[in-house]
């Protein structure tokens, strides 16, 4: 029985996917030569390709720059109060809204910066928050 289970597991996890995996690997290595990836440990390579999945939301708050706002403005204080009360999944959704990805790039959370700007419109009650994902700017009406 043990031999059968071992052979079956080997077939399911190795033999049955060998050809599709070799095709994938050949295509991947054509675009991303292996010699450049060998400098990474598997964990480091995962971060480079996927980004960071663990977040320090207070560090994110510290890395914000403000345009037409000051850190102690009421709108900003209210924003961060509400933000920190959000569940983890909603915070990730905000990150996706702001940057186009729900993960922080591989260069590290301490280097991830964004701006909060006042769109300076006549009637801020008529404007919803919006984002410029390319430049990571959140336009937050007063």
From TrEMBL:
E.C. no: 2.3.2.26
Can you give the residue ranges of the HECT domain? 1-142
User: Which GO molecular function annotations are given, in alphabetical order?
Assistant: ligase activity; ubiquitin protein ligase activity
Q: What Pfam families does the database record attribute to this sequence?
A: HECT
The protein's superkingdom reads Eukaryota
Kindly state which reaction or reactions the protein catalyses: S-ubiquitinyl-[E2 ubiquitin-conjugating enzyme]-L-cysteine + [acceptor protein]-L-lysine = [E2 ubiquitin-conjugating enzyme]-L-cysteine + N(6)-ubiquitinyl-[acceptor protein]-L-lysine
What are the UniProt keywords, alphabetically? Ligase, Transferase, Ubl conjugation pathway
Gene Ontology biological-process annotations:
protein polyubiquitination
User: What protein does this entry describe?
Assistant: HECT-type E3 ubiquitin transferase
- The organism named in the record is Fregetta grallaria
Q: Where is the catalytic site?
A: 134 (glycyl thioester intermediate)
